[in-house]
Amino acid sequence: MSKEKIALAYSGGLDTSIMIKWLKDKYDAEIVAGTGNLGQQKEIENLESKALFTGASKFQFVDLRKEFVEEYIWRALKAGALYEDVYPLATALDAFVNETQNPVTGLVRLKLYKGGVSLLGRNSPYS
User: Fold this and answer.
1) For the whole model, what pTM was predicted?
2) 84-108 per-position pLDDT tens digit
3) What is the dihedral sign for C-alpha 94, 97, 102, 107?
4) d(CA 39, CA 63)
């Protein structure tokens, strides 16, 4: 009998890296980590090796740039979508795309106890 498979949206950060091990142990399942490329640069380096090192059985990297632009960004712009009913969504989409280019770093403190995980604190120079 084969193990169940769990798909995890994987960022490569501490939280999703810990989740691979936790899900694998808690559910005795095979973990398939996946990341969608929306245009980010630095965050995609070494993602596959990180995911496999922390216990994922497979890693999928899906290029979603074209679909994201065609199915979401263009449609929102053509519709004149507004953010908070005031700002053109173009501003928010631009901020989102720019944010995907920023580095993510920081410290996360977790408590692991009897198969559970609790966030004790987090700190980042970017938040």
Assistant:
1) 0.60
2) 888 777 766 777 666 665 655 667 6
3) positive
4) 9
